[in-house]
Amino acid sequence: MEKNNIYHYVLVHGDCHGAWCWYKLSTLLKSLSHKVTAIDMAGSGTNLKLVQQIRSITDYFEPLMLFMEALPMDESVILVGHSRGGIDISVAMERFPTKIAAAVFVTASMPGPQLDLPTVSKEFDGQSGSPMDNEFTYSEGKDKPPTSYLIGPKFLASRLYQLSPAEDITLAMCLIRPSPLFVDFHESSKETALTRENYGSVPRAYVVCEQDNCMKEEMQRWLIHNNPPNEVKVIKGSDHMAMMSKPNDLCLFLLEIGGKYCSG
């Protein structure tokens, strides 16, 4: 990578997290003079919306879409989505393909033109195991599906952060917020529809985290098999939170992606 090649990375978090979870990776990339924008999705991090105000998956995506819309037409970014953030960046790829040099899915959901979100969600639910101490909210009544949830401390420590420093678990427990759940598969399928012409025109890379206890490697490989990306990178010894447990490895791969897809 040449020194004068400055890339712009846009980082999108997963459930219950926020822009804060990228603090290690952001610091590494910025120390190399790259530009970094970490987004707080609706109801996440410092975003002022409450989870009960988020009525649709489109509402949840809004901060990322507004950011992409405001980008100058001659600027392109590298989108990085973690966990459920893969859905967010997929929709951004569909809506703003010319503004995205590449998209990186870090142990993330990765729907595609031939792999819709309901199919991905059902496969994940079938492999996800016990919710342990996660807290679910039923704002439409106990006889209806839950409308939001908050990751519990035991789930967080054993399924997401089991290989991350203890300080990062403490940080997460201070900052996580409830995430909305969208159970109307028909509606979410329409809102997240992807095409070969738009989504398919953006180069994709997938980061496999071998020791992920949340999105198991089997699920990650299923996504790769059913929606093959241009690149696959395996990070050994990483839990679900690769940006916490293996920030240097993730940073190096993102620099490789920048060098390959942003040069010239």
UniProtKB/TrEMBL annotation:
It comes from the Eukaryota. InterPro entries: AB_hydrolase_1 (IPR000073), AB_hydrolase_fold (IPR029058), MES/HNL (IPR045889). Residues 124-143 are annotated as: Disordered. Pfam families: Abhydrolase_6. Signal peptide: none annotated. GO terms for molecular function: hydrolase activity. Residues 10-249 form the AB hydrolase-1 domain. This is AB hydrolase-1 domain-containing protein.
